[in-house]
Give the backbone structure.
Amino acid sequence: MKYRAAIKQARVHGEQDDAYRDLALRVAASQSGMISALAVLTGSLADVQTRMAGLEKVLKEVE
């Protein structure tokens, strides 16, 4: 009985380790995707800022 309980505990711990490993892999993949999306957004924001600066310049000239 004692050995069966130890074996069962080892299996449970192994399954938990696998679950944590899978979770860590999913989190890493998610973070990678978020980094890519953030890079795209940063580029878009820089473009908007450049266009806004040009628009402000035109509006100041019109005044």
